[in-house]
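Appendix B. Chain record.
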Amino acid sequence: MDEQKDSLCELDEEALFEMAELFKVFGDSTRIRILYAMFDKERNVSDLCEELGMSISAVSHQLRLLKQSKLVRYRREGRMAYYMLADDHVKTIIGMAKEHIEE
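Structure tokens predicted for this chain:
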């Protein structure tokens, strides 16, 4: 734990700001629902809308924010875009948060 604390103390103001901005993105339950829906497989916007009971514009808006934060990425197949978690770090953050609240 002390090693983690020491490494956090070494962060400059810009890194701390970026970390705070990342946590802001995780501070919205709609975005968490979208990330959780993509936990094990990629999804297109229609899939997400149907599963979450949300409009296309609402899902698209949240996906744009998640892409800007580098939490999701997408691939195109014809005219369809498929979204997935950007990397395993996102899964780790979600998994640790879930574990924390279940304690």
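Further analysis of this model is presented in Appendix C.
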